[in-house]
Amino acid sequence: MEDYLQGCRAALQESQLLHVVLGNEACDLDSMVSALALAFYLAKTTQAGDVFVPVLNIKRSELPLRGDSVFFLQKIHIPESLLIFRDEIDLHALHQAGQLTLILVDHHVLPRSDAALEEAIAEVLDHRPIEQKCCPPCRVSVELVGSCSTLVTERILKGAPEILDRQIAALLHGTIILDCVNMDVKIGKATLKDFKYVEKLEALFPDLPKRNDIFNSLQKAKFDVSGLTTEQMLRKDQKIIFRQGIKVAISTIYMDLEAFLQRSDLITDLHAFCQAHNYDVLVTMTIFFNTQNDPVRQLAIFCPHAALQMTICGVLEHAHSPSLKLTPVTSTLPNLQTYLQGNTQVSRKKFLPLLQEALSAYFDSMTIPSGQPKTVDMSREQVDKEELDKAGTSLISGLSQDEEEPPLPPTPMNSLVDECPLDLGLPKLSPEAIFEKCSQISLSQSTTASLSKK
Questions:
Q1: Which is it for the CA torsion 14, 48, 135, 119, positive or negative?
Q2: DSSP characters over 311-346
Q3: Which residues pair with 262 in a beta bridge?
Q4: Closest among 336, 354, 222, 348 to 285, alpha carbons compared
Q5: Contact criterion met (CB below 8 Å) for 449 and 321
Q6: Whether 248 contacts 240, CB under 8 Å
Q7: Once rounded to an integer, what is the mean pLDDT over residues 106-115?
Q8: Cβ–Cβ under 8 Å, residues 126 and 153
Q9: What is the pTM of this model?
Q10: CB 388 within 8 A of CB 404
Q11: What is the pLDDT of residues 422-441, one digit of tens each?
Q12: pLDDT of 385-404, one tens digit each?
């Protein structure tokens, strides 16, 4: 693989047609490995002279945010320096010069900023439901399996099994296991095809790591933030809402808030982070598991604008649908209000409508004449719009979330997600297993509530 990747970098220096294998914007482990392995396979099985180049669809500076990818590359002995990132190749210039074809892997819809590249797409290999209106008119292979790396493994073993060495097998094997939550049948993410090709890889290379070992090590690396800067920690898992000129960032960090607050020069870093991205408010939601394996959620509201911070904190403290059960935690840091969140069932997804209510209350307090009754907009309308313009221009009304360009890649599908039944504590499953079941639990609770009202 190293020799192949070195050849890819050398090919970028020449003026020639490039067949770019492009992963998705999240660039999680599955997307990265799928792009690397599929490009390698195509390079080995097509006519001489065709150059297939894997491109990771993020900036190089964003790779450290993906701890599992960094860990796995080191473990498999693939130097990061050999990888090609999106900011190191101008796809639009290549397309305009007639020197580009695209193979999309682990996605089948390009973002609006890449719409001009759609006519260059020659093939799609994906494992998520197809969007009929957006799918490009080319060869499309879509199958709903747990990991796109499963489909790449199938392509290799059916087309040219002789090119598969232990290094590539280990990449594919570990990625499928992580994506499919250690092949746990209780979770139900792994399909029969995922099981089939994990077993085939294990039969071909009996010395591959045990499933539990590789899953646990990748899982640990994914959520390890110890080596990140404060800015990287805040950007790793972030949502942004923008309303009437107020821009709010909500970052989830998987560590104890007390440890986070003890970081050197924290307030300076928070100020710099907000100024760099024009954020008026920074909400940090932390989560970790204590020694009894019980979930602990904490909250920090950083806002230099006293009136805005006071309104937000007041609404959150008195919220009842749902109640956060906040307990203030003493902090000597300026412009920062911290809390212990007693209701651990309230994830970021459920928290966002409360934050929207707080912004409504703030705007009402600024516009309603003194002495008049103030009403708070209790609407649960989804306005979690990701705002691209760093200058702070308002969102265009009517755009769907999928139509807008997020300032950062979306959180990978196999990462911790927002809907989390933490009120039940930690069962005899991994934290990832809990989060994989969230949407089902949320749907069940909603159905029960509807029936009880009837």
A1: positive
A2: HHHHHHHT--TT---EEEE---STTEEEEEES-TT-
A3: none
A4: 348
A5: no
A6: yes
A7: 89
A8: no
A9: 0.71
A10: yes
A11: 444 444 454 545 554 554 55
A12: 333 333 332 222 222 233 23
